[in-house]
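Look over this today:
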Amino acid sequence: MGHPRHDLLQYSHEISRLYADGRTVSQIVDHLREEYNIQVSTRTIERRLKEWKQLNRKYEVIETDAMKDTLIMLFQIGVDDREILRVLREQGHRISLHGLATYRRRLGMRRRISREEFEAAKERLKIIIQEELDSGTMKGFGIRHVYTYLWNKGYFAARRRHDLQRTRGEYKAYGPNYVWSIDGHDKLAHWGFQIYASIDGYSRYITWIYVGISNRAAFSILRQFLDTLHSTNKQPRFIRSDKGSETIYLAAAHYALCRKHKENSQISDCYWYGTSTSNQRIEAWWSQLTKSLLFTWRDYFQTLSQHRLFIRDQRNRPDGVYGRPFMLYHFPSDDTVDYSIRPDSELLSQFLDRTTPWDIDEYLPSETLHWCQSTLDELGFSNIELKDIFPSGEHQHCEAYIQLRDCIQRHITSGIEPNLEETKPPTQEHGFHPDLDAIVDEIYDTTDIEEVNYSSNL
């Protein structure tokens, strides 16, 4: 007499899911025994999977461009296959763990390589790095930046796993979008490049960054904030900044939008002030950015200034949660709360409509920009890149700048058309929007905004 036939149909979905997740048949047998006290053989599970047409579907992958882009992006930042699988399934892609690994390897993204492949890749990498060092584009970068840089160039390299598991000191935070820290950066402001950015206090993810002609105009900071809310449809619970005049309209807009969710809220319920140096999250990121990238351009502009090649001065001037900022912000764990709120679409649209006439990305008026581009073309500098070097060793972009500067000076002296000029930073007096104007007056008069030391509150 044979073994009694178990009714496994009611468990078919769970068994199929376990199999698709990469569990072996023996592991599925153990799971049924431990969870449901069902005794079956491995042959029974194999037979049922075949009946349910799952056995031969284990390795099928429905490939799409979106899945490929997500896989490449997550592998690039060091996410393991199980986490990648979780994200892909949340996005609606049907794929098994084994299928994911097979697809990843087919794209050239390997977790392990043979010793022969490693030695060949190492020699190739030496050549590539030397070429990039000679071009001056990798100076000052740490190992993670170098890895990402080479990845963006199309070179895949296996990384030692323990290098991806280094942790930071303890830091108490509540979840994504609980607080955004905002501040400006002036290391390149002397040469006309002003920077402003926002960082999520929980994940260290950069929610926006602006490079342009105005990081100290309240109208500009407001527009950056509104554009971010419009593109993400997310608004943080708190914003943290130093108490400067450039954030007054942003604070008013954030407060007005928050009151759409909680009518009787106070400004201190959604906004924190404090000194710039105690704004721990954004200050730490500025330090990393300066050490890894900005110093190269600062040195370049200082060289131009020291040789009197710059046209003129510009008048305007430790702890954390574990994980990668991108994953912590966009794909937090199930027990982590996303504190974002949806900004009121009607009020947000009203604010955006008032800022629309100003192009936040414009650096030069269109007529001036066209004249400069045409002049560079005539000088033979149509498509130069930072890595382009003359046989003498001089960078071509430096020579292009010097020649363009001389042409601009001659053109201005001649007095002929067109009239070359810079884009003026935006200015805005009272009258921007009734709701914001009233709140701005309230903020200026109130003592209710809490001055906080960010590191002691989270």
In short: The longest helix spans residues 280-306. Residues 65-106 form one domain. The beta strands are 179-185, 194-200, 206-212, 238-241, 271-273, 450-451. The first strand starts at residue 179 and ends at 185.
